[in-house]
Amino acid sequence: MKRMQYDLKLSELPPYNTISGSVFSKENKQRKTQDGLFNATKLQNRIEELVALRKCGDYMLDETDHSSSDLGKAFVAAMPAHNMTHPRLFRTYRVRDNASANCKIWEAARATTAAVTFFRRIAIGQEGSAPEENQV
Length: 136
Known about the structure:
Radius of gyration: 15 Å
Strand order of the largest sheet: 1-2
Shape: flat
Number of helices: 4
Number of strands: 2
């Protein structure tokens, strides 16, 4: 939320309540034969809309002139499907070691919701690497 310039005030939670209401609705349920109970595309679309509304850039790591102190430092954690012992951290700030891909904000949100009971897995990472290595 900090990357999207929210101050965690109760007055700013309605967009999130609206998103959860549509994403976890009866209309967004998938057939039992598909991965996850809910359609992940609806979640992606709603997050992309919110990011566009906030005009804060598409990526977790902001490459513009904003200093990290202006926006605060934040990260999103997700567990890779191929290695459940080491979480991947998608950060809003640079690090020297163990840096993850600079993914889009919606991708980070999807990675944190990739519990197979709710949504299908998502692959995030550098081009050219094996897709199964990047699934979270």
